Amino acid sequence: MSLSVVCQSVGTGVIVVSALFWLGAACMLALGLRRLKSLADAVPLPNEALPSLTLIAAAKDEADRIEGAVRSFLTQDYPGLRIIVVDDRSVDGTGAILDRIALGAPRLQVIHVHTLPAGWIGKCHALARASAAAKTDWLLFTDGDIELAPDAVRRAVSFALQEKLDHLAVAPDMIVESLGEAVFIGYFLAMFYLSQQPWRAPNQRAKSSIGIGAFNLVRRAAYERSGGHERIRYEMIDDLGLGRILKQSGERQMLALHGGAVRAISAVVRPARGGIPARLLALPRRGPLPPRSHGEDRGGGGVDRRLHRLRRHVPGGEDPPVARALDAGRWSALQLRDTPVDRVRGRSARARLEGDVLPAG
Q: How many CB atoms lie within 10 A of CB 190?
């Protein structure tokens, strides 16, 4: 048999195997998504049956979107709703916008964070600050670029109570502004669902867990039992981290589809705040870690140090665009360093980097 025939046979085999793989993945995705329920299916409960709730959002440099988001929070048809928005060291006027809105909205509380304590990632610290200030039975964590339909919170809480949940995550409707974003978002969502398998999250025996930064509704008692954001204070992917520790503490969780109640502007161009590109790079965290090589930390430790040196010593390494790209790479490298034991304990590679300084936002 000639070499060309062998190569052709091998190539055909690879194509067939790849086609079968993607066909299987598509079938699994279709069957899995059919198992997810929607907020549109929830029967809204009357006021007297609804528990107390605080809506919490963290915002950093969201001046172009924060007002629309907060106005949608204030229109919620939910009795006694309290709203806490944390201005996390913004430099673009976000804090001033929040203060102006708060003047005419008594149920809105604004917390300004001017400095980040050592040992925290910015968003986790902001959400922890707000959680400590909230005194309600339920907490709803969302983002400063999320817009909610007027009945979104009522439907979500009704859904959670009817399903006897401790944690409800809601997948938002992603609003895209171009064909390129639509293609990227579609690919990201497919990979996200296939890797996380959120339809298995309600099964206590399954390892799958879920968390969505746009909408994480948590029973306060469950939040406290899990350790809350204090336990994941180094975690860049805070929403998945919160879902993971809630599942580990035995809380019942579920992912629901938005049903037209929750929408988010595409985060494709905003990786520094935990946007989609950074999340996509950090998703493949299952499976064994690479073996420790001589003189080098696990996984991405050596990569991180090299990127750190590049930023400090390469000409232009401190220029904002270059610095952001290098920092995003360092974050991804650090995600690969986390060991399963460290993740269970709520620690991360960043905790083991002595003297290192990473972007806090």
A: 14
pLDDT digits (tens, 9 = 90+) for 331-354: 444 444 443 434 444 444 444 333
Q: What are phi and psi of 68, to 5 degrees?
A: -60, -40
The two structure tokens encoding residue 33: 């998504």
Domain ranges of the chain: 38-267, 297-352
CATH code of the domain occupying 38-267: 3.90.550.10
Q: Which residues pair with 264 in a beta bridge?
A: 146, 174
Phi, psi of 355 (to 5 degrees): 75, 10
- String of DSSP letters for 227-290: THHHHTTT-SSHHHHHHHHHHHTT--EEEEE-TTSEEEE--TT-GGGT-HHHHHHH----SPPP
Token digits of residue 328: 């995003």
Q: How far apart (Å, rounded) are the C-alpha atoms in residues 42 and 138?
A: 18
Strands of the sheet containing 262-265, edge to edge, are 146-148, 262-265, 173-175
Element (H, E) at 329: helix 320-337
Taking only the tens place, the pLDDT of each residue in 281-320 is 444 333 333 333 333 333 344 444 544 555 455 444 444 4
